[in-house]
Amino acid sequence: MGSTPQARRSDTRERIQKTALDLFVSRGYEKTSLREIAEELGVTKAALYYHFKTKEDILGALSRDLGRPVDELIAWAEEQPPTMETKRELLRRYSAALASAMPIYHILQENQATLRDLAVGRELSDRVTAISRLMHAGDLEFGCRMRVASAVLTVHFGAFTPCGVAPAGTVEQRRAALLEVALDILSGAAAVPTLPPS
């Protein structure tokens, strides 16, 4: 028994998104055309247009799919008390969610000028802002806030360290090491003394 037309359409959409993602990461979003995506897939531009009218449509679909774990994490964190244990768990889960969402953040990082004003650029930026807001929730002293900010930056931007600069090891080993460093930074947050008023 053959697959349904809907299943075939879904499979084609997934193939388009995977091919486009590979090209966006390797060549850059701006330098990749719909024609090149169609050629890579071995389909006509008309067949591609049936599923996606623009590159931005493809990128938006990728952002929704790859960003879903981060969206779910934000929804979870908004229901939790703003304790230090919640912040540690949020950091752990964010690190894991970034592992799957990394290609889309990589595209944003490498194409900031082009994507900044597009809806997908705002979506990705909003996710990072939401994670940072949730990490800073609660009544924190100045020194503690600085440690929280450093921990978030370590997990998020550390993941973008170029391979030539990053220490040897797999992507997963680097992600785990960055998380360990971030949790170490966070562990001292509760012990930070209050700064005297200036």
Describe what you observe in this structure.
By secondary structure, the chain is mostly helical. The chain has nine helices and no strands. Helix 1 (5-27) crosses helix 2, helix 4 (55-78) packs antiparallel against helix 5 and helix 7 (119-135) packs across helix 8. The protein is elongated. Mean pLDDT is 85; it is low at 192-198.
What is this structure's SSE topology?
Layout (H helix, E strand, L loop, with lengths): L4 H23 L6 H8 L3 H7 L3 H24 L5 H27 L1 H4 L3 H17 L6 H17 L12 H17 L11
Helix pairs in contact: 1-2, 1-4, 4-5, 4-7, 5-7, 5-8, 5-9, 7-8, 8-9
Main β-sheet description: none
Structural class: mainly alpha
Percent helix range: over 70%
Distance between the termini: 76 Å
Briefly, what is this?
This protein has 198 residues and is mainly alpha-helical.
Descriptive terms for the model:
single chain, 198 residues, 73% helix, disordered C terminus
